[in-house]
Specification:
This protein has 171 residues and is α+β, with helices and mostly antiparallel strands. The chain is built from 6 helices and 6 strands, in the order H-E-E-H-E-E-H-E-H-E-H-H. Strand 3 and strand 4 form a beta hairpin. The chain is extended. The termini are far apart.
């Protein structure tokens, strides 16, 4: 008959380490940052995507400033209409702001949305347009793609990889 033994602290630490680092086994950590930066924006009715060339130095600098933590998204159904809020206030980065203002962006696509939705849902749709556009360019495959997004809700969803709202994950 087999007898169960409790796991030692060393074994537990090893299992936790493998569990936490497991997702990195499928990541290409050597992937370079793409030679361009994208930006997406949306209103209630329109979406747009722009791009700008990116030097290696700019790519490293930009990637080092990217938000990675995300935050919790709260859906609130208020009398004046539904809204999404983040649990954290946005982090203002004056150097990034100045860099964006000085960068020359070129239009990729602009369009009207087919359906009416909350502005943060439309921002997520505009980000999806960036991903669709970039995925068609073979030169961008296996690279990290910097995307500037002004919606804090969409940034948080991108960092966390999920949302509590059905509207963001329905498609």
């Amino acid at each position: 008959m087999r007898r169960e033994r409790p796991l030692t602290h060393a074994v537990i630490d090893e299992l936790l380490g493998v569990t936490l680092l497991g997702p990195l086994l499928r990541c290409d950590l050597a992937a370079l940052v793409a030679p361009r930066v994208y930006a997406s924006d949306a209103t209630l009715t329109d979406g747009a995507v722009v791009q700008a060339p990116l030097s290696c130095e700019e790519a490293v600098w930009l990637w080092s400033r990217a938000p990675r933590r995300g935050s919790v998204i709260h859906y609130r159904n208020l009398p004046e209409g539904p809204t999404f809020e983040c649990s954290e206030s946005p982090r203002y980065d004056p150097l990034l702001h100045k860099w964006v203002e000085g960068k020359q962006f070129y239009p990729v696509v602009s369009y009207k949305f087919k359906r009416s939705a909350h502005v943060n849902v439309q921002e997520a749709n505009a980000l999806r347009t960036v991903i669709k556009h970039a995925s068609k360019d073979n030169r961008l495959h296996r690279s990290r793609l910097p995307v500037l997004v002004d919606s804090q809700v969409v940034q948080a969803i991108g960092c966390r990889g999920r949302s509590r709202s059905e509207e963001h994950t329905s498609e």
